[in-house]
Amino acid sequence: MYNSKITGLGYYVPDNVVTNDDLSKVMETSDAWIQERTGIKERRHVVRGEETTTSMGVKAAKIAIERAGIDKDEVDFIIFATLSPDYYFPGPGVLVQRDLGIKTVGALDVRNQCSGFVYGISVADQYVKSGMYKNVLVVGSELHSHGLDMTTRGRGVSVIFGDGAGAAIISREEDPKKGILSSHLHSEGQHAEELSLIAPGMGKRWVTDIIEENDPEDESYFPYMNGQFVFKNAVVRFSEVIMEGLQKNNLTATDIDLLVPHQANLRISQFVQKKFGLSNDQVFNNIMKYGNTTAASIPIALTEAWEQGKVKEGDLIVLAAFGSGFTWGSVIIRW
Ligand code: UT7
User: Fold this and answer.
1) Which residue out of 161, 265, 285, 292 has the highest number of ligand 1 atoms within 8 Å of its CB and is therefore the one to mutate?
2) Is there an atom of ligand 1 within 6 Å of 196 CB?
3) How remote is the C-alpha of 257 from its chain's centroid?
4) Same domain? 194 vs 94
5) Same domain assignment for residues 103 and 158
6) Same domain? 125 vs 234
7) Which of 86, 96, 192, 309 has the fewest CB within 10 Å, making it most exposed?
């Protein structure tokens, strides 16, 4: 048995900044409402045709590979988490293999939305710990902006989400006290539709049904979120799964050096911060700049925290996520 650790991190966000004031020009919303309810000041939207979920993921991956000090041909496996793939199929994992020119290693697509990166890290961790692979590339990337309802009807969702990508290399670590200590994953499918995008899908409505019906009132191909219900579940599940991870490792909240929560809503992060008695320095937030980038939010935040010197050798780093599914999870890391 080996241990595993994060040896390289990278992120990429498109240049195009969309402020709250920009949004209030196309829908009934305001900078004050968005900041008060979510903490978001601006987000990035790709310029249509210039980027895809895969191309952003590839850019983030290149940086992570370089920082890990490995060659792309030393990547033994690719894991790609997204809810906004380039194609219905195949998933972006194989597109990354192609576009990075990596040899014919396995590529796995993870569909766990906001928890996608945490699920991805957990899978990579097990492959590395078992000795099966030495270096696993985990990417979280999202292109939300093409698929949002940018009218007043969709404002409860569309002001929140942003585009971007983050990536990590998980590598073999010989020191058992260093690296990923444990990961903790959960799901509760009875709430699947509370945060979902129902169509197109083979279950209820395919593209041909949408075209045939040609209904201008149709909202089924836009993301739906029961905001308050999701919020209430998020604060409970975030807290539970962080506690679970700490207890599993005989740690307490006072041991946390940095919590990097999925950037769902600044109010959720603040609730969790208070619950665990953490200071502002112990919780990393960048939702103000990027909005909620779903599977990309943790790797973008972790990379920024690392670049700012907030992730140091020996630190206890906690990652935690909650989102559509519902799915949630945490990862406890001794850096
Ligand atoms: O990342 C995955 C997990 N996601 C989350 O954890 C998100 C959880 N939920 C949330 O973050 C919050 O519920 C939201 C930010 C989505 C919404 O905030 P809220 O405080 O729960 O607002 P609400 O949905 O209860 O809406 C309050 C009012 C409504 O108007 P009325 O009915 O009171 O007249 C909405 O129509 O705010 C209105 N509203 C808006 N007003 C201006 C909704 N969206 C907007 C908007 N601008 N963008």
Assistant:
1) 265
2) no
3) 21
4) no
5) yes
6) no
7) 309
